Amino acid sequence: MNSLTKFFANSFSKQQKLGKYSFSFVKPPRNTSFKKLQESDINYFRSFLDSHSILTDKESITPFNQDWNKIFHGETQLVLQPKTTEQLAKIMKYCNEQKIAVVPQGGNTGLVGGSVPVHDEIVVSLNKMNKVLSFDQNTQVVTVEAGCILEALNDYLKPFNCEVPVDLAAKGSCQIGGNIATHAGGIRLIKYGPLKAHVLGLEIVTPTGQILDLTNTMRKDNTGFDLKQLFIGSEGTLGIITKANVAAFKQDKLNNLILVQCKDFNQALQVRNEAKSFLGKDISALEYLDGITLDIVLNNSRGKTYNPFTNMQDNDKKAYILIEISCNYNIEEVVERLFNRLEELGIYEDMVSSQSEEQYKMLWHLRDGVAEAVVHIGSNVAYDISCDPKYFGEITNIMRERCKQIAETTSCGHIGDGNLHLMFAAHNEECVKKMEEEHEKFLYDWVKSVGGSISAEHGIGLQKRPYLWEHKNQVALDYMKKLKEVFDPNHILNPYKIV
């Protein structure tokens, strides 16, 4: 452990809450160079923002001061909700001149503390910049304000039989600007590829208050440095995204969901590889969970799903693969051919496919309901990693054995692209502490040893910042810090996060 990691590891100042028990995530000391908010500052914002765009009472600002899981808690006294890019630019110019720290916030559905204040930073919410501005049916490019809810954006595109290439469990509250800023993954990555490949243009307000117009609706634009890519995945530390041009895709007319029961993980890996090879572009999702995780979901689903299989003997050794097929031709034939192929290879124990919309939703809940089930039996200590899918079973068994006295271990994820979610239902507060102190670093060191990533899709934020310095090349880190200096010389934008 290097000196910086030791500093952060020893600088916990407050216990944060999740579920029944407390977490002691890093809370760095406040940067004393930042100005304390004064009434004169609020009066300045009142000069160009209406009263509904300025929140100061405790009840109104509480939701902006804590993350979705209620792990991280800030102390902001002011939330600003600009309606235009120009208003946001005035806010940032003033805050930069006054050295007032600012946290940009979208739907606040992140899981690593990246979208909430650490101390008394002002929160700038994009909630009121939420319009779909245009959709070109010829190019299939949608232009949208950053605060638009992901589900609302796709609802807008439905009459055109189109969708944006990202689908998340939080789609009912997450915002497209936040999705881009954190480079969200989700279940559609296997079908469309990463979101950054489909963001054609951005409008950004810099920390100094400049409006950086990188908007573009052309799929091909080879005119120098592609600056917009710097802001995709930057987690709101380099600038605030205000508008985006995103390529949309025609939705397939037909879909089906298949759940495959396998005797063990190795067999599940074979099914995964065969499905990818056999179905090609007709796969729209490829998900995994192990037998123990399935049992936990079934026992805590509260009527939201059912067990489609009759043989559940030795389920602790079994693994399950969820395959969503989407296409525009005879889907029954595609499903039957896949069934026959897996039967021919003898690499499954049982298999079911959805025969109705209700069955489709209930099969999906077996995978989507894991986090909810974990919370019902303990406190969810969650880790989002990526590695070669062949390691999913190995690391699950290692962590389950290590943590068997302190937590129930669940294992699921996007096996199509190598993103594993390990979630632990900790038994009590002492067990939560043991997870952090005895097992977290082991897991991240293991990830490094197999060439994986400590964050597949959730980002770094505040939670994983101490580990970034051990898992990122020093030269790369140096350039990240230089970029921060270029765009944010006073370090006022989303401080204490990433770099």
TrEMBL record:
One of its GO terms (cellular component) is mitochondrion. Keywords: FAD, Flavoprotein, Oxidoreductase. Signal peptide: none annotated. One of its GO terms (molecular function) is FAD binding. It comes from the Eukaryota. Transmembrane segments: none annotated. InterPro entries: FAD-bd_oxidored_4_C, FAD-bd_PCMH, FAD-bd_PCMH-like_sf, FAD-bd_PCMH_sub1, FAD-bd_PCMH_sub2, FAD-linked_Oxase-like_C, FAD-oxidored/transferase_4, Oxid_FAD_bind_N. Belongs to the FAD-binding oxidoreductase/transferase type 4 family. This is FAD linked oxidase family protein. It comes from Tetrahymena thermophila (strain SB210).
